[in-house]
Amino acid sequence: MKRYCLALDLADDPALIAEYEKHHKPENERPAITKSIKDAGIINMEIYRIGNRLFMIMDTTDDFDFAKKAAMDAGNATVTEWENFVWKFQRPLPWSKPNEKWALMEKIYQLPG
Fold this sequence. Notes:
34% helix; alpha+beta
């Protein structure tokens, strides 16, 4: 299993943040989006928020590949529609690459064990 941590900002607007969180509540799950996430090899995904910054933890299969996931997403109209919808809430980090949403974080510490 692999673990990835990513970050993204939201628009600094309490109403938009509340709406974004509403769309991520369990009762508002979108089965097709959940299926696409799991089909890509993502075993578990958690998103945390502080202020308008989001932090995502993804546990994946060993063969998970971001490029493969992007290609799968590009060929899935439901995922494309979802990504376009949530982009109205999201903002790239100041140092993100062009067209990059979630920025991959670099692990700098692990508790010795």
